[in-house]
Amino acid sequence: MPLYDFRCRGCGHQFELLVRAGDPEPICRSCQGRDIERLLSTFAVSYAEKTQAAARSSRKRQIAARKDAIIADEEYRQKHDKE
To answer: Which helix or strand (DSSP H or E) is residue 15 part of?
Structure first.
């Protein structure tokens, strides 16, 4: 039985729903809206795409951590150079 991911275009709520042949069109569980889009499931994304996305995410975290370390070092130098 197919389990699909959906997102409501009205309120942005994301949810999973078991969809069988003959079932009525899904509605949003949050706002009861009918403007629903079916999302790609995680298994539908290729491994290369997932690897690239993970690498980009890791790089962003590394850059942010490096910026924090540089700022902390500069604050430390400013505080201790005055003494």
So the answer is: strand 14-18
Which residues, other chains included, contact 1 with Cβ-Cβ below 8 Å and sequence gap of 6+?
18, 20
Tokens 């999973």 found at: 16
Q: What is the mean pLDDT of residues 58-67?
A: 89
H-run or E-run covering 54: helix 47-81
Cα three-residue angle 17-20-25, rounded to 5 degrees: 65
Residues 69-79: tens digit of each pLDDT:
888 889 988 88
Is residue 19 within 8 Å of residue 51, measured between CB atoms? no
Dist CA 36 CA 4 (whole Å): 12
- Residue 13 has which token pair? 């709520």
